Amino acid sequence: RWQKREISNFEYLMFLNTIAGRTYQDLNQYPVFPWILTNYEGKELDLAQPTNFRDLSKPIGALNSERREEFIERYSSWDNNLVPAFHYGTHYSTAAFTLGWLIRIQPFFSIYLSLQDGSLEDESRLFTCVRDAWTSALMGGQQNVKELIPEFFYLPELFHHNGILPNIELPQWAESPEHFIRIHRMALESDLVSCQLHQWIDLIFGYKQRGPEAVRAVNVFYYLTYEGNIDLSTITEPSLREAIETQIRHFGQ
User: Fold this and answer.
1) What is residue 234's predicted lDDT score, i.e. its pLDDT?
2) How confident is the model at residue 124 (pLDDT cuts 50, 70, 90)?
3) Three-state SS for 169?
4) Among residues 64, 93, 47, which one has the least CA distance to residue 253?
5) CA dihedral 98, 102, 103, 107 (to 10 degrees)
6) Please, are residues 153 and 10 in contact by the beta-carbon 8 Å criterion?
7) Rounded Cα–Cα distance for residues 150 and 56 (Å)
8) H helices within 49-195, ranges in order?
9) CA–CA gap between residue 219 and residue 184 (Å, rounded)
10) Is the pTM of this model over 0.85?
11) Fewer CB within 10 Å: C terminus or N terminus of the chain?
């Protein structure tokens, strides 16, 4: 149905997220969507111009060539018999990342505060600007390889102030949060995304998740992020088991 364009790219991604076990009911397994644009600075956005779109055949951590080489070097020089080699020590989707995107909306704002002992993080670590969030994902340190959530394509309230946090700074080509959502959704459904979306799906849901294909694609994550890589029932030491469960809970799976 997707190939025949009987369902949209958005619907198809939501379907894949659902059958993969991702759900709005679980911040640790929240639906994941791709960054799709690269132009967050220009006054105009031409959706027919390929340079305005991200290369969906590469994971977010491998888009910037310099950072890509850093991750490849980490993997190739890894020397630890207890922990398998990996490119990324963090994940593209975690509860903390999801709350960071949704921080201006309840009940997510309250959940965020409860995890932060009632106080906000430094503003430099909060989601305040779409351009800066993209730049951090593209060129930031090795701790930011996060993708987006579905709300970026339908929920303008994501960008509105909540009485405590100000409005999100939008790209110049967006006149308002509502306008940003409309253009962003149009971009998601564009031919330029449609013709390469399957390559991102291979990375997140398909055959490039693990094994030799994941290595070739620079798409290997810390071993605990893969379901089934460790059998918790075999760990009898309570403190060790708790530590591993906490790692999985906070760093995504």
Assistant:
1) 80
2) confident
3) strand
4) 93
5) -100
6) yes
7) 17
8) 65-76, 95-101, 108-115, 130-139, 177-188, 191-194
9) 26
10) yes
11) N
Write out the two tokens for 36. Answer: 């799709």
**Tokens 């679980």 identify what position?**
26
What would the two tokens of residue 219 be? Answer: 């798409």
- The SS3 of residue 77 is coil
Q: What distance in Å separates the CA atoms of residue 154 and residue 42, rounded to the nearest whole number? A: 22
Number of residues written out for the chain: 253
The crossing angle, in degrees rounded to 10, of helices 9-19 and 177-188 is 80
Instruction: Tell me what the mean pLDDT of segment 64-80 comes to.
Output: 95
Output the six-digit token pair for 245: 């469960």
What's the confidence (pLDDT) of residue 58?
A: 97
Which residue type sits at 161?
Answer: H
* Residue 37, helix vs strand vs coil: strand
- For 169-190, write each residue's pLDDT tens digit: 999 999 999 999 999 999 999 9
Q: Can you say whether the dihedral through the CA atoms of 178, 181, 183, 185 is positive or negative?
A: negative
Tokens of 34: 């791709």
Gyration radius of the chain's alpha carbons: 19
Task: Give the pLDDT confidence score for residue 252 in this predicted structure.
Answer: 66
Distance of CA 112 to the CA centre of its chain: 18
Q: Tell me if residue 33 falls in helix, strand or coil.
A: strand
Give the 3-state secondary structure of residue 107. coil
Contact of 230 with 224, CB cutoff 8 Å? yes
DSSP 8-state class, residue 43? S
Tell me how many helices (H) and strands (E) the chain has.
Answer: 10, 0
CB under 8 Å to 72, separation ≥6 — which residues? 87, 218
Q: Which two three-digit tokens encode residue 1?
A: 């149905």
Q: Are residues 30 and 151 in contact, defined by beta-carbon separation less than 8 angstroms? A: no
Amino acid at residue number 85: A
